[in-house]
């Protein structure tokens, strides 16, 4: 009998895998509960997960460990042991691709979507996809299962509404190889894992005021989501198509190169999945800079001091790192957030930059200085847990 391939049962509603299970046909793969499913959707999610293969393994296969270019564990259900190995690096497709795994004991094999399915016990692809999007900080596609003809007849969304934010994010593309990636790297940010909440729009509308004509500029689009991963808003950073300069730091030469839309209060731009520990701060670039030093710590960007003081805290949270900006507004947000955290039994720990914010520290003082300063400000038990990849 043919060895089981866990991916083959993504859509057939059965639990478990076994050596008698046969792979489904390509057509069957595209059906879930009798409805057509976009195969590209699964492929794209698998590719995104593979780009952060080690982070996926640390989260869903926590009983394993890294050994060279592989993650080893007992099986796809996170049993302790060493018979299953996951490739942590490699091409996006073909044999030897990152994220592909094989269990030497059972002959099971698959990709990281299969890891999520089996380790979490899901029985439908929809649940697997939603969990993958949550891990990648991607919003749920609210209209994913609606026929194209219904989408095409959708009326225009109110300006600045959550629906307008969802449509803007949906029209944007991955940041890989775009001006957004160049912008972030020019600001010293090289840790771009788990940045599915960021996208690129090549011609994003910008209107200086109600009486001015509409302009178009390339922009970084950030998804603002609630604790359940639902997109409630979007943040736009318009970029200079001419590139980076120390004067503009890569932002467009317009009056307000950063604007937000939608329902923002309590929500945030998210990088990673918050568990017992999370860091929260104001700006996207600020938090991504800190993440260069603490690469596996989940973080959120609230987009302003006022919104930072009002972010909703996950029920799982036990320790909150507050990444303050070095100004009066940052001090006020820090004080409010400390009080709120303590009221619900969460330990607040403040991390402070040496300059104005953590991106300034990264750009002007360098990565080593940022890492050293972060190391002495976090709890000793979190050093190995969240700084390992930055070593």
From TrEMBL:
Domain DUF7146: 161-271
Domain (Toprim) ranges: 278-365
Species assigned in the record: Bradyrhizobium japonicum
The name this protein goes by in its record: ID498
